[in-house]
Amino acid sequence: VVVNNSTASPTSGTSAITNLEIDSNTIYGGYANYLYGNGTASNINFRNNIVDSTNYYGLYVQGINKFSLNNNKFTLNEFGNINGYGLYINSCAAGIGFAHEIIGNNIVNAAYQGIYISSSAGQSATRSVLLNNSLGGGFRSTNAYGIYFTGSSYNWNVFHNSVNFDAVTVNTQN
Predict the structure, then answer these.
(1) Cα-atom radius of gyration of the chain, to the nearest Å?
(2) Could you tell me the CA-to-CA distances from 146 to 8, 37, 113 in Å, in that order?
(3) How far apart are the first and last CA of the chain?
């Protein structure tokens, strides 16, 4: 799945997508899935989907100021990229009065990082939510992270998530 305004590349176009529902699909195989916005894209809902056997990103989200990723199952290819990500959220600062939701997802075989959130701040009055996600099985990197926040990613409520590291990791910041 690629959502952007480019016909040339899944990672080069951006658009002001609004009110997009991606619900109850099975997405099988491929390298990755992308949702690319221009910073004003909003109301993007990706829910109740099964994403199976992608090689690198279960879902890469960029430039969206209000999204919900709820009740999805991401199973990356167990022989896929050793640096694979279940969810990769980048440059998604929540708009005024908006909040992001990442709730009730199951991520397996992420290899490197289960959920990575970079430069994606919530609002102080309407904090974004990372809640009840399950990450486990299939971490293969020796520097793996379960949930990783970086680069001005603040104003998030993070509650009741589970991470199961089944590979030896040298990282002490999990």
Answers:
(1) 15
(2) 33, 25, 6
(3) 30
